[in-house]
Amino acid sequence: MDISDIPTVTLSSPSLDRRDLERKSSAVTLSDMEVFIFPELMYSLVLANLMSPRIWKWRDDPWFADNAKLTPYRRILRVKQYIMDNYAFNLDLDTWGLTRKEVEIARFRDWVSEEALAQSNALFGYEGDKYYFDLDIRTHFGLDKYDSEVIPYWKTETVEAMDAFRYKPNYESGAGECVSLAALYAAALFIVAKIPLRDIFLMATPLHSQNFVDVGQGILTNNRRLVTKNMWFNGTALSAQARRALENERVTIVAHESGFIHILFERATIDPQAYDRFSTKLRRFLQTPLTPELLGNFVRHSADLQKCFQARWTNFGVDRYIAMEKLMAYERDFPYRFNDETRERLFREVAGEDFESRPLPDRIIINDLEQMVAEQQVDVRTEEGFRLLVEQLAPSCPQAQDAIERLRRFCWTEPRLPDPSTKTFDRTQAPLGLEVGMERGDIIARLESIRGQNETAELAFYAYRDLTRTAVEPFLKAALERCPVSVAGSADLTDEAVLDLLETFAAESIYDEPGRLAQPDEVWNYRRGDGLEKALLLANILRNRHPDRPISIEVEPQQAILRAGNLIITYPTSKALRPQRWECGAQASGGSSGGAGQASPAPVSAGPTSGRTAEPRGRARSR
Asked: Which residues in the chain show pLDDT less than 70?
């Protein structure tokens, strides 16, 4: 085909308005900030994972051989263990690199204000909750070594990108951040555990993402782990970690098969009845009556309050007392617990010198508190029950009111969910119509059939990275404007050295199927790529080094030809795309940052920068 007959693709497209281009390119990038701005993207990633062949292969693993004989809960536990064995949690600044606040605010200013971002999104300062002022978010995430305008590109990974972490140094398994793990769980619960999508709700807070699964009393997914209602209240370090987000953060997004609801935006697409069911079940999950056993769990959970309590042990008719923090130290050393049937065994392990013959001053005797709770059935969640405990305990401990207030919060977490009364529910979207028992081909066909009537289904194909089913411009925009890691990582290499390095990359894509492409930073991180993916990676690097140079990629079914000044290089490809020409130079975006068809300012590097480059040699290279 003559080059003049090949369709040319640039970063701007008359067929896509600015919001559509940003939203569809964000479905490719899938960074946390983009999911926050376009909440429909959260479930689009779930659908992309449902279309992927990867999770469907899990069903052939012997670990799931007897799934049909198991209860739903046991099937969910099998999925949990599989994820625990095959994926690590990863959240660092190096994997996907850094950008700047002003760049992202310029992108999104038409849809959300900077002030609203600061109130609701951790990347923009997160001024929403006092808890996080004390935490010092930037130091917590290692951002304190950069100026205050630098923020990370925490990109949510597809299941393929999660699997590919095993190719990175020091990784022995797949990995992903919290949104990635939440989306992975949702897809796996449907495909492998056969949990209906209607029973799976994804929740995002400013610093975390997790799922609520409406099975039994409810189950929370928390990164790789599961949390049942009993676990939520068991007072262990693991449950304390799981409780942190819902206790201290607002829920910004709830995503479901029926749609989403967002804390900032008036428009919601979730089914109101489904959202009411979720809200009711989650609130029920997060509260429980006070019992003597739960009281012990609270003391175990609240290490800083243990100094307010002591325990009494009657041995040979003599009362002896021990500070609670000392007793809890024995719990860590022995397989016995203070608040179950092994209490007596625990006391027998305590060294004699750790006991006191008289009650310790200004401490509540937990045995007496247990008796009062059991006999009077005190409900600390009510004002009456709260006042009763404070009045009874105040003479024993100056900090009684604070301790009881903390106890009430332990028994009763009120989730701060988006308020449905402030939303306008848009129910014009076609239902997904995905049911347990459908096969992968059925799901893809169904999503194809409704993508014009369901925005989540439409965006799922962009998250799926399938250029045979989507416009190319959003993929190119994400690839050439939001992949800083490859630019930073190659900064100390000459152009010729970059070409030689790409030669060492494995000639295979992390995406198994034709038409599906990796982004440049995925190719760079995992040191592998199809020839077309390598050509795009090279275009991203050269575009940042030589902003005035025309750069293009001629895409053919079996080869990709990159042209950059005097450099012409050919890579073989098996992606089987139709012939087309991609304009990749900075001039293809048409000017300064802001609207569609305009290049964003160069992102901040995650690593060292250097101005040292070499002019590509004036010869053609075949790879």
From this structure: 1-5, 13-14, 118-138, 140, 587-623
305-343 pLDDT per residue, tens: 999 999 999 999 999 999 999 999 999 999 999 999 999
DSSP states along 344-383: HHHHHHS-GGG-BSSPPTT-EEHHHHHHHHHHHT--TTSH
Burial class (CB in 10 A: 0-12, 13-18, 19+), 167: middle
Task: Please state, in angstroms and rounded to a whole number, the distance separating the CA atoms of residues 183 and 463.
Answer: 12
Check if the beta carbon of residue 138 is closer than 8 Å to that of residue 207.
no
Q: What is the pLDDT of residue 125?
A: 56
| Token reading at 43 | 């479930």
- Write the CB contacts of 420 (distance below 8 Å, at least 6 apart in sequence): 261, 268, 272, 275, 276, 279
What is the C-alpha to C-alpha distance for residues 260 and 203, in angstroms, rounded to an integer? 10
Nearest-angstrom CA–CA distance, 300 and 338: 9
pLDDT at 124: 64
Residue among 379, 329, 380 nearest 354 (CA):
329
Give the DSSP H/E element, type plus range, for residue 289.
none
400: alpha, beta or left? (left if phi > 0; alpha if psi -120 to 50): alpha
Name the burial class of residue 73, with classes exposed (0-12), middle (13-18) and buried (19+) by CB atoms within 10 angstroms of its CB: middle
DSSP-based three-state secondary structure for 174: strand
Q: Which residues, including other chains, have CB under 8 Å from residue 270's CB and lie 6 or more apart? A: 254, 255, 256, 258, 259, 260, 261, 425
Overall size of the chain counted in residues: 623
Q: Beta-carbon neighbour count of residue 108 at 10 Å?
A: 19
Position 14: which residue type?
Answer: P
Amino acid 94: pLDDT: 87
Model confidence, pTM: 0.90
Provide CB contacts within 8 A for 405, sequence distance 6+: 386
Contact 104, 110 (CB under 8 A): no
Q: Taking the chain, what is the end-to-end CA distance rounded to the nearest angstrom?
A: 21
Beta strands in 134-252 (DSSP E): 150-152, 174-176, 200-205, 208-213, 219-222, 225-228
pLDDT in tens, 169-179: 999 999 999 99
Kindly list the domain boundaries of the chain, sorted by start residue: 3-11+471-622, 19-287+416-463, 292-411
